[in-house]
Amino acid sequence: MQTFDLGAEGLRALNSSLHALKGQTNMTAWEVINPKGAHAIAAGVDAPVDITVRGSTGYYCAGMNKQATIRIKGSAGPGVAENMMSGTVIIDGNASQYAGATGRGGLLVVKGNASSRCGVSMKGIDIVVHGSIGHMSAFMAQSGNLVVLGDAGDALGDSLYEARLFVRGSVKSLGADCIEKEMRPEHLALLADLLKRGEAEHLAKPEEFKRYGSARKLYNFNIDNASAY
Amino acid sequence: MCGIVGLFLKDPKLEPQLGALLTDMLITMTDRGPDSAGIAIYVRPEEGHAKLTVQSANAAADFKGLDADLSAAIGGPVTADVKDTHVVLDVPADKLDAARSAVTTLRPGVKVMSAGEAIEIFKEVGLPKDVAARFGVSKMSGTHGIGHTRMATESAVTTMGAHPFSTGPDQCLVHNGSLSNHNGLRRELIRKGMTFETQNDTEVAAAYVSQKLKEGEDLGTALESGLDDLDGFFTFVVGTHNGFGVVRDPIACKPAVMAETDQYVAFGSEYRALVNLPGIETARVWEPEPATVYFWER
């Protein structure tokens, strides 16, 4: 276990050490102490290592993550796991705005609540939120899955493409072109797998969720709507 | 981008540390805005006393003999506590309005930063650590305070363009964001008798809240009204003689984190600003909801 005191050694030293890990490495377990809300902790990691951050983080923690498993033993600031490519990010507390934004792969788990714009423009990432999510979540989400055990705020899935949204609680309002869709057996199987990987299988059952997706009416320019643009 | 910090103490034992805690919080937010910085501190009022905080670019000349001149002008005792470019003038509470109008007649070069029984505002161009040091903020005690570090978008980087803005007795407001309908609102407020020192959008928001309070609304209702009438991006933190309020616009893209314990309510643009507060490990930490008014009064 490599223990790194962020207060003493600084962010640049941490991220340089993590970026130096390429391919296979013996240093597979890392612990970051004294994060104190610092920005960009463990951003840009590209190695199959396990990093535990003991406390709350600021902007862009685990941004662009590839391969690594990053655990935050606190809450995360704006843009956690933004543009994640692969790997896993697990937050014990809450996540601020635009968690998992533009993520292309991997799994983001938020055990508390996520704030507004969760999964905005997601492109393949899977996001499991044990609590609720804020307004404008999954705006223009293109692919991947967003699972919410609690409630969703205003304008869920506005201008959605092909991402699948599963919400167990209430949805305050649906965004433009986002509609409730039928839950088919393949979706229940998908959800069961996501709940398991998202450490939530003891908290909810797939049958308790509703599925939301794109009505696909905004995909192409429609001349009849020209006056609205 | 701007940085906001705020601290509303519930436990009087923390009052001697207010300035130190707030200064530390504000310095942490320096990289959110290095243009100018300001702090409003609410000091426990003394019965029968009120304070004017005034600023001058030519402090040595303007502040010389100001206490005696002001005392003669209002016919009551005045004491002056000079702090760098600012001076806090202690005047009889019933002569505060007279002192406020007399001071700019006596010294046309000075600007009134704040007036009231509890509030003192210090603000200048420069980094939070330098501004706080110039005014000795970390040694101040008080019941609540608000700090701001500015990255200017809407108007010039000047002392008067720095936050907090105070447009009514014991009132102040700081802002992260930008308003789009401030010119129209300023004209309406001028018609209602408000006066303005700058072209700044935030000053309009401050005057808007002051006008609503003057019309008899309480702080919570005034902020609710602001959600309907102010257009743009905002996270506001507002202070009154006994209150502390927070409101974010419905889109809420300007960050805000709050923490509450038995001892205090704290606000930070980022969690980083709160990490050195006593008992933060066990505090209730949350993000204020969009278009939702929060306020605390003692």
What does this structure look like?
The complex is a heterodimer of chains A (229) and B (298). By secondary structure, chain A is an alpha/beta fold. Chain A has a single domain (2-217), classed as Glutamate synthase, alpha subunit, C-terminal domain (Pectate Lyase C-like). Chain A is built from 3 helices and 11 strands, in the order E-H-H-E-E-E-E-E-E-E-E-E-H-E. Chain A has helices spanning 6-9, 11-19, 185-197, and strands at 2-5, 29-33, 50-54, 69-72, 88-91, 107-110, 123-129, 143-148, 164-167, 178-181, 210-214. The longest helix of chain A is centred in the C-terminal third of the chain and has 13 residues, at 185-197. The termini of chain A are far apart. Chain B has 298 residues and is an alpha+beta fold. Chain B is built from 8 helices and 15 strands. In chain B, helix 3 (66-74) packs across helix 4 and helix 7 crosses helix 8 (219-229). The A-B interface holds A 36-38, 56, 58-59, 75, 77-78, 94, 96-97, 115-116, 134-136 and B 251-253, 255, 257, 270-275, 285-287, 290.
DSSP strand tally of chain B:
15
Number of domains of chain A: 1
Strand order of the largest sheet of chain B: 7-2-8-1-13-12-14
CATH topology of chain A: Pectate Lyase C-like
Helical residues, percent of chain B: 25-40%
Counting H and I runs of at least 4 residues, what is the number of helices of chain B?
A: 8
The named CATH superfamily of the largest domain in chain B: Aminohydrolase, N-terminal nucleophile (Ntn) domain
Q: What share of the residues of chain A does DSSP label as strand, in percent?
A: 15-25%
| Low confidence ranges of chain A | none
User: How far do the termini of chain B sit from each other?
Assistant: 31 Å
